[in-house]
């Protein structure tokens, strides 16, 4: 699964709107949207901000799917 899809999945698990997460991560809503739909890939710094806002370790967005083995 792509990074953006994983971010969207975690955001939805927490019942957050894109605007809410973007504000929490101090990034623009447009940028978060672009990340989630795969138009852009976040920098490590941005990924860390998003992870912190979601309360998860950023490695969950980088790990390959376990199903692919």
Structural features, described:
With 69 residues, the protein is mostly helical. The chain has one domain: lambda repressor-like DNA-binding domains (434 Repressor (Amino-terminal Domain)), CATH 1.10.260.40. Helices cover 61% and strands 0% of the residues. It has five helices and no strands. It has helices at 3-13, 18-25, 29-36, 44-54, 59-62. α2 packs across α3 and α2 (18-25) crosses α4. The chain is globular. The mean pLDDT is 92. Residues 7-61 form the HTH cro/C1-type domain. GO terms for molecular function: DNA binding; DNA-binding transcription factor activity.
List keywords for this structure.
single chain, 69 residues, mainly alpha, 434 Repressor (Amino-terminal Domain), 5 helices, 0% strand, DNA-binding, TransReg_Diox_bact_type, Lambda_DNA-bd_dom_sf, DNA-binding transcription factor activity, DNA-binding transcriptional regulator, XRE-family HTH domain
Q: Proportion of β residues? A: under 5%
CATH superfamily: lambda repressor-like DNA-binding domains
Write the H/E string, N to C. Answer: HHHHH
Low-confidence stretches: none
Question: Main beta sheet, described?
Answer: none
Please state the overall shape, judged from the principal axes of the Cα atoms: globular
Number of helices: 5
Radius of gyration computed on alpha carbons:
11 Å
- CATH domain class name: Mainly Alpha
What is the share of helical residues? 55-70%
Structural class: mainly alpha
Can you tell me the number of structural domains? 1
The end-to-end span amounts to 13 Å
Mean pLDDT: 92
Number of strands: 0
CATH topology, which one?
Answer: 434 Repressor (Amino-terminal Domain)
Q: Give the second-level CATH assignment, the architecture.
A: Orthogonal Bundle
